[in-house]
Amino acid sequence: MDINDAAIVQDRILATCEANNIAYVTDATNFEPSITLRNAIRHEIQSSRENKPQKPLSMLPRDIVERLMMLETTAKTLPDISMSLDSSINELRAGVQVLGQHAQDLDDQ
Distance between CA atoms of 52 and 40, rounded to whole angstroms? Predict the structure, then answer.
C-alpha cells in the first residue's frame, strides 16, 4: 500500500464513521515517537516529508533505537535494497516496496 492508498483507506473509515454516526477519534499517542517503533518510523517519515528536523536517535528510548538499528542492519543484508536510517524518503519507500515484495514472494512459496 502506498501513501495514496493509505489516504483512501482513511477516507473510507471516516465516511463509514459518519454514515453510522460513530465519532472518529485520533489517538494522540500515535504521534509520539518514543512509544513504539511504528510511531518512531511514522515520525521520521512525516518529518522528512515536511522538511522538519528529525528527532535525534539519542532522544528515543533505548529499545526503539535498538529495533531501528536492527532494521537497518537487516536491510543492509538484502542485495536489492539500498537504504539506511539516513536515507531519503524516496529511498525508504523504495526499500519498503522491495521488502513487501520479498514478503509476498515468501508467502507465495
Answer: 14
Give the per-residue SS3 of 30-57: HHCCCCCHHHHHHHHHHHHHCCCCCCCH
DSSP state letter for 58: G
Residue 27 three-state SS: coil
C-alpha cell at 99: 521488502
pTM flag (> 0.90)? no
> To the nearest 5 percent, what fractions of the chain are helix, strand and coil?
65, 0, 35
Per-10-residue mean pLDDT of the chain, 109 residues long, equals: 61 91 87 80 74 69 81 79 71 76 82
Q: What is the C-alpha end-to-end distance of the chain, expressed in Å?
A: 21
Count, residues in the chain: 109
